[in-house]
């Protein structure tokens, strides 16, 4: 069983975490992941972004399956 | 032979697809970095009627990406200038020029005459405004946006069970949270690519050719040339956050909803001016042009937290800066310390004062 997850960050979130990809031990749920991210990167506390698990956007907490890819998706407004 | 021969012979598109484009109408909102390529390709493809809404004027810093404009167009309205260019180029498109910013006041009248809306605007309040108007009026919406080296594209409100912008971003962000092109810079080719993807989606929706990005959002990164596609799920909850009816839409203040700060135009600000209102320039020393007037308080944003007490006595405070972003940050900062004060930010800052 692969308990590592791949985190892919986009836009401003990638800047705040200093890169576009992280490989982390699976924290179990999206809420746990958010808490861990905010703890590691305090700049994320004020940031608004969505989570996609395996390329599906989720609006509420969810379990992160083993080996999942979790994308952190901030809004862009430029044009 | 028609000027559309190469797409009329295309399997799956054909004369039928062309006829659908010819019979359709598109409203493009914003003739900026996204709007320019969108317009170029929709007009070339032969969309029958194109409306263009933009109240902005051409500035020198636009020219690296707003490819419809040249140095001879500086200061001119973008909608009028762009349409004039196309009227010389093609004689088979019906144009509507709307030289105004899209707003809750004009949204319904402008949108009602079109089959499809394409959002090439550049700020969050307008993006939510355009989205809500399209949901309430049941118009499909091609969405695209950029941030520095990345872009995102989707198609909203396309038939039943279709996601919209609020399903992608249910929480309204403030402009002050996310820097814009003016702060981060942008290579002109990025909005060129995203605008082209938007034009492609628009053509798919109008002609019925291939599958548009319904309930999907496509991300593109220009540094890595990678794409990433995410599935969206329409939800009843996000629908709850929207105005329920066109009547409640009309009285929405989208800037206030996004920023939490009431924004004023310069003329509204001037009418407010009296001795009880603190009028504060939060630009750093040396920013041009300087503004001098009686009673003007100068507190650079970088120093605001140390000087908040200078505003303690004022019940109303009016902030401005160069472009209207830092003044929102200043207003939010002051509001946290003094939640009872009436605090405003001047929309567009000094840049909006020139015209």
From TrEMBL, chain A:
This is MoaD/ThiS family protein. It comes from Algoriphagus aestuariicola. Pfam families: ThiS. It comes from the Bacteria. InterPro entries: Beta-grasp_dom_sf (IPR012675), Mopterin_synth/thiamin_S_b (IPR016155), ThiS/MoaD-like (IPR003749). SUPFAM superfamilies: MoaD/ThiS (SSF54285).
From TrEMBL, chain B:
PROSITE patterns: RHODANESE_3. Residues 273-355 form the Rhodanese domain. The keyword Nucleotidyltransferase applies. Keywords: Membrane, Nucleotidyltransferase, Transferase, Transmembrane, Transmembrane helix. It comes from the Bacteria. InterPro entries: Rhodanese-like_dom (IPR001763), Rhodanese-like_dom_sf (IPR036873), ThiF/MoeB/HesA (IPR045886), ThiF_NAD_FAD-bd (IPR000594), Ubiquitin-activating_enz (IPR035985). The chain crosses the membrane at residues 21-44. SUPFAM superfamilies: Activating enzymes of the ubiquitin-like proteins. GO terms for molecular function: nucleotidyltransferase activity. PANTHER family: ADENYLYLTRANSFERASE AND SULFURTRANSFERASE MOCS3, UBIQUITIN-ACTIVATING ENZYME E1. This is ThiF family adenylyltransferase. It comes from Algoriphagus aestuariicola.
